[in-house]
Amino acid sequence: MSTTRTQVAVIGAGPAGLLLSWSLRAAGIDSVVIENRSLEHILGRIRAGILEQCSVEELTRLGLGDGIAEHGLTHHGIHLQFDGQRHHVDFHALIGRTVTVYGQQAVVADLVRAHREAGSEIVFEASDVSLHELTTDAPRVRYVAGGAETELTADFVVGADGFHGVSRPSIPGLTTYQRGYPYAWLGILADVAPSTDELIYCLHERGFAMHSMRSPEVSRLYLQVPNDERIENWPDARIWDELQTRLGVPGWTLHEGPITDKSITPMRSFVSARLRHGRLFLAGDAGHIVPPTGAKGLNAAIADVTLLARGLADHYAGDDGRLEAYESEALGRQWKVQQFSQWMTELLHRAPADDDSAEFQYRSQLGRLAYVTGSRHAMESLAEQYSGLPL
Ligand SMILES: Cc1cc2nc3c(=O)[nH]c(=O)nc-3n(C[C@H](O)[C@H](O)[C@H](O)COP(=O)(O)OP(=O)(O)OC[C@H]3O[C@@H](n4cnc5c(N)ncnc54)[C@H](O)[C@@H]3O)c2cc1C
Q1: Between the N and C ends of the chain, which has fewer C-beta atoms within 10 Å?
Q2: Residues 18 and 69 grouped into a single domain
Q3: pLDDT tens digits for 114-155?
Q4: Helices (H), strands (E): how many in the chain?
């Protein structure tokens, strides 16, 4: 077994791990990123698509803003649709803030490019990744890559390995808080220009639908489906029919095009009670996940990394205050994100028909949507949370 050393061992080359390693590099701190999938796999993963204003500012501050400036689509608000009517909530007019449509895939590609040019050490296709001696001042990570076993000793280990990674399970006796939802999202990518200027979030009596986009040429659309739905039941024509039914309003046309990707994603809210165990810190989906309705998953990962990078930079400068505060600060922020994601989800999805209170809930949701779109205070609150809490 070969042995090696770094200052910070980062598990996972998703947006959280890649961004943390990049931030540390900017602060003059060495790190090694260990990823169990291939480079092609992480570049091909289609996930989130909305960046909060703070996320854009942070990526830009770190020299990662060129792609966003060139290809990102700045949105001043969202459309909320219910009862056959569409209402625009103008974040910029309400609170002077915006969000940017820029795919997670592009964020990851920008990070990979930057790391490559800088010569960062990223180990892809590492298997048997395991964490050891986390409560000592020399934690270790063991892994196998290219047939050889390596032991990496570090000052700190950061678990940025997503919901299914090895880091969170390495914390003994961990309490977690979670809830599921009785529905899932069927998402498609289609080669057709978006039929809307800004995202449409729609509550229809047949269920939630959403029109988003990835670029001026590529649309991303979603339908609420039952939890146990199978993608085989949804040929392309059925998807477009259902989208037309749920999203349609008089005088507006939903343009259809070839579907290039379709999948069903379940929804879950999850928070780990701890984001620290000795010298291990958790960041991003390793520590928490949200249903996608509020567009918060990627942004929460960026927020964690921003807080953690500040703490680690201070530590190496001799001040442990912000590193000690990381867990409580990140969790405090995360619970605000959780309640917003839960609120957006329950506002816009139809309870299953076998729920006794489904009809009551639907009418109550319509009342809530009418209140939100009719009250400046409520719209400001939505705008503030959707465009992102300050970092
Ligand atoms: C299908 C899907 C759709 C989504 N859609 C949206 C959306 O529309 N809007 C939104 O805001 N959010 C969405 N999200 C959430 C968002 O994509 C995540 O919050 C974001 O990816 C979090 O980044 P991360 O780096 O923390 O975790 P991840 O992106 O999961 O990255 C973790 C990395 O760790 C690696 N890894 C895992 N196990 C190990 C191991 N044992 N050893 C080494 N490496 C390991 C993984 O391969 C991965 O590269 C979606 C998530 C999924 C799964």
Answers
A1: N
A2: yes
A3: 999 999 999 999 999 999 999 999 999 999 999 999 999 999
A4: 11, 21
